[in-house]
Write a structure and sequence with these properties.
Largest sheet: 8 strands, mixed
Number of domains: 1
Distance between the termini: 38 Å
Strand content: 15-25%
Number of strands: 13
Low-confidence stretches: 1-35, 188-192, 195-215
Mean pLDDT: 85
CATH topology: Glutamine Phosphoribosylpyrophosphate, subunit 1, domain 1
Helix content: 25-40%
Radius of gyration: 21 Å
Bound molecules: aspartic acid
C-alpha cells in the first residue's frame, strides 16, 4: 500500500469516527493528530553504516536501530550511530581520518534534521572536531540558527566543551594527501579553456597510484543515515569530510538542507552521498521528498531525483562517451510508513546500502538508474 493510501485511510477512518461523534463544523482541515500513523521502524544509511565498528561490537545502523527500538529519540540514536563512523579512522571519508582538503587539512561538513520538532542544524568547513554531526545537533538544539561555518563553527563547538584538536589527519589520510599533492597540483583548479577529463576521474586515478582504475570511492564518501520509529517520527543526519583534496573552504551538499539531507515528518526523508555539486544544483533530497509527497514510493521517487540530475548534467567534462553523467551519486530514501529504498546513478560492486530492521542489519543492493559505469 502506498503512503498516500495509508494516509487517506487514516484520515478517512478518523473522519468517519468524528462524523458520528462531532458536529458538522468539526470538519475542516484534519488536525495533524489525524494523520499520525504507525510505521515500521527502520534505519537506513550508506554502506559504511554497516561496515565500520570503531573497535566496538555494533555498526552505526545496528546501534541506531537498537536505541530507536528502546524508545530513545530518533535523532539522538542516529547521531550516536554516525559517531561510530566519524570516530573510526578506518573510514577515510568521514570525521577523524577523513580525506583532507588541498592544504592537507581535514574540513568537515554535517547536518541533521529532527522531524517531530521541525528543527535542523548544520556545520560546514569545521576543523578540529571529530564528530561534526554532534556539533550540528548542538546548533539545532542550542541556537536560533541553522548553519555555522569555519572558525565560527569551531568556536561554537569549543564553547560547548567539544574537544578541539590541531589535526584530524591519521597517518593514512596524510599519506593519501601527500600522494595527491605530489602529482596533481596542476590539475586541481579547472581550466575553463581546456577540455580535460573530469577532475574527479583524474584525481581518483592519481589517488589510486597514477595507473589505477577510476574508483569513485577514492574521492567520494560520506554517511547519510535516516530513521523512523514506530510512532512515525522521522530524523536524519549526514556527515562527511567532503570531496577529497577540495579547494579549502569548499562546502559540499552534505550540510545543506534539501541537498545532503531533507525530511518532512509527514512524508519521509532523503539523503545523499556522491558528487555533491550535482546534487546541490538540483536540491535533489528536497525534490525526492516532494515526489514522496505526490505519492511516489521511495524507489521511484529516488530514481526520479537521479533522472533530474542526469537531465541537468550537460557539461562535456561531466559526461562519459555515452553522453551520460561520469560520476556517482546515491540517495537513501524512506517514507512515513517505513518503506525505504537506496538508489544509485550506476550499479557497481560497491553499490550497496545499509538497512537495519527488527530482523537485523544487512547490506542490500542499490537500485541503479543507468546501466554500465560512470567511465564507460
Ligand atoms: N557528497 C559529498 C560532498 O560532495 C561527498 C561524497 O559523498 O562523496 O561533499
Amino acid at each position: 500500500m502506498t503512503r498516500v493510501n495509508r494516509r487517506e485511510f487514516v484520515i478517512a477512518g478518523a473522519a468517519a469516527g468524528l462524523a458520528a461523534a462531532a458536529p458538522r463544523q468539526a470538519f475542516g482541515r484534519a488536525p495533524a493528530v489525524l494523520t499520525r500513523q504507525s510505521a515500521k521502524p527502520v534505519v537506513i544509511s550508506s554502506a559504511n553504516g554497516n561496515r565500520f565498528r570503531n573497535g566496538g561490537t555494533e555498526t552505526c545502523v545496528e546501534l541506531a536501530f537498537r536505541r530507536i527500538a528502546a524508545g530513545d529519540d530518533v535523532l539522538d540514536s542516529l547521531v550516536a550511530g554516525v559517531n561510530i563512523i566519524e570516530l573510526d579512522p578506518e573510514d577515510a571519508s568521514v570525521g577523524y581520518g577523513g580525506r583532507p582538503n588541498a592544504d592537507g587539512i581535514v574540513q568537515l561538513d554535517a547536518c541533521c534534521m529532527h522531524g517531530p520538532t521541525r528543527r535542523a542544524g548544520g556545520v560546514a568547513a569545521l576543523e578540529g572536531v571529530r564528530t561534526p554531526s554532534s556539533v550540528a545537533q548542538a546548533v539545532m538544539r542550542q541556537t536560533d540558527h541553522h548553519l555555522l561555518v569555519g572558525p565560527g563553527a569551531q568556536a561554537f563547538a569549543r564553547n560547548l566543551g567539544f574537544e578541539i584538536e590541531d589535526d584530524l589527519n591519521t597517518d593514512r589520510s596524510r599519506r593519501l594527501w601527500l600522494d595527491w599533492k605530489r602529482r596533481t597540483d596542476p590539475q586541481h583548479y579547472l581550466d575553463p579553456d581546456r577540455e580535460i577529463a573530469r577532475r574527479d576521474v583524474e584525481i581518483g586515478r592519481l589517488a589510486a597510484g597514477l595507473d589505477g582504475e577510476y574508483r569513485d570511492d577514492e574521492v567520494h564518501g560520506t554517511i547519510n543515515c535516516n530513521g523512523i520509529n514506530s510512532a512515525g517520527q522521522i530524523c536524519g543526519v549526514t556527515t562527511t569530510s567532503g570531496l577529497a583534496w577540495k579547494i579549502p573552504g569548499r562546502v559540499g551538499d552534505s550540510p545543506i538542507l534539501g541537498a545532503g539531507l531533507y525530511l518532512d515528518n509527514a512524508v519521509g526523508a532523503a539523503g545523499s552521498t556522491g558528487r555533491g555539486e550535482a546534487n546541490l544544483y538540483n536540491l535533489t533530497s528536497f525534490l525526492i521528498v516532494e515526489y514522496l509527497r505526490q505519492g511516489m514510493n521511495p524507489k521511484d521517487a529516488g530514481l526520479a531525483g537521479l533522472r533530474r540530475i542526469q537531465e541537468n548534467t550537460i557539461e562535456r567534462r561531466l559526461l562519459n562517451s555515452r553522453g551520460l553523467p561520469n560520476f556517482g551519486v546515491n540517495f537513501y530514501v524512506l517514507d512515513a510508513g517505513g518503506e525505504y529504498a537506496g538508489v544509485s546513478m550506476y550499479a557497481s560492486q560497491n553499490s550497496r546500502y545499509a538497512v537495519c530492521t527488527e530482523n537485523g542489519a544487512a547490506l542490500v543492493p542499490l537500485e541503479p538508474l543507468l546501466d554500465g559505469s560512470p567511465s564507460d
